[in-house]
Amino acid sequence: MTDHTDLFLKQAFSEKPIGASTLILKNCFIKSATYEGMYDKGIPTHKLIDHHVALAKGGVGLTTVSYGAVSADARTFEDQMYINERSLNPLETLANKVHEAGGKVSIQLTHCGFFSKNKKAKKILAPSKLFNAYGFLSGVGFSKAMQENDLEEVIEDFVRSALTLQSIGFDALEIHMGHGYLLSQFLSPLTNKRNDKYGGSIINRSRFPLEVIKRVVLAVGPGFPILVKLNLDDGVKGGFSLEDCIYVSKKLEDIGCAAIVLSGGFTSKSPFYMMRGDIPLRGMIENASSWAEKITMSMFGPFIIKKYKYTPNFFLEKALKVRKATGIDLVYLGGADSRKGFSEILAAGFNFIALARPLIHDPNFLMKIKEGDLEKSLCNRCNKCIVEMDREGVRCVLNS
């Protein structure tokens, strides 16, 4: 092997602690939280367990279970998983099985805010009263502007969920502060129209999300890593900006957050900004939950869903500005799919690399990179795996 290859293998596949936590990962690679759709009426199935065990066996340092809603009202739709006594046994089994496979496991905690089709929700919460285009055709049209009691209740839901998951064996937690879910809705001027201490400047817009993280970090105690997924920007004019991201990143460092997973995009406004590549519109129409939604998407989908060209390491230029502004551990996410790309990211000073589609395509991708059997992922960014989430569970259609 060349000296360059030796250096890459040492950087990428050596043990690494996350921040100041006691968690040591066997390499720098994290499986990004990607909605799996492997649930039966909100209860994790054996498919979900097998999915994450396969990722652990394939060599990923930390695998992340996606979208653990912190309450029944925090679900995007009725059959989504939330952290409650019915979901804990299979989640504990999942954590144990991942450990047996030689891996570590995290879970993403989130609240959907107004981005909801959940007709069973007692109240649809958001920073402000907002029109919900996502749920309107399902009968969930408007959100309720959160009051102080709502804010405290949501904080308690995050804390309770975090402590519960810590107690059943999860190694880390990721709190979702991006992609247009509730905490991101507070951060974004597009959805936060408040004129109190929670609205206006980024100091105010970040006040509630940062309080959530602070309370969770204090609750789980020192040594247990709390990661935060945060947008670099919303990808929409007038939204959360890169300058906002730098401000929030510094505050997360002060709070004691272990690492930040840098991402981008606002699901209800710029969904493919965070992924890039093809838009599987036909499958998305087939999966629509009502005829009205199918017709609307068929007529207007090609015009309202913007396509973004995929390029390797597509968020790197923006992420570098955060890297230069803060000392917190940063997880790079966005177009990382090759030995060359990984080397570039690590050389730029990022601590970890998050992957999704390359590992959906091939759970053994990292082992093949390490052994020199592959230089680059064979995923073609068709994005049809997104469609499969709402069918029998996320998978790569190229492997069928």
Structural descriptors:
single chain, 400 residues, alpha/beta, 8-stranded parallel beta barrel, two-stranded antiparallel sheet
Could you characterize the architecture of this molecule?
With 400 residues, the chain is an alpha/beta fold. The protein has 16 helices and 14 strands. The protein has helices at residues 3-13, 46-57, 85-100, 133-136, 148-167, 182-187, 202-205, 207-220, 242-255, 281-287, 291-304, 316-325, 339-347, 357-361, 365-371, 384-389, and strands at residues 16-17, 24-25, 29-31, 39-40, 43-44, 62-69, 104-110, 125-126, 144-145, 172-177, 226-231, 259-263, 329-333, 352-355. The strands form four sheets. The protein has an eight-stranded parallel beta barrel with strand order 3-6-7-10-11-12-13-14, surrounded by seven helices. It has a two-stranded antiparallel sheet with strand order 1-2. Helix 3 (85-100) links the parallel strand 6 (62-69) and strand 7. The protein is globular.
In short, what is this structure?
The chain is an alpha/beta fold.
Q: Summarize the amount of helix as a percent range.
A: 25-40%
Largest sheet geometry: 8 strands, parallel, barrel
Q: Reading side by side through the largest sheet, how are the strands ordered? A: 3-6-7-10-11-12-13-14
Strand content: 5-15%
- Shape designation: globular
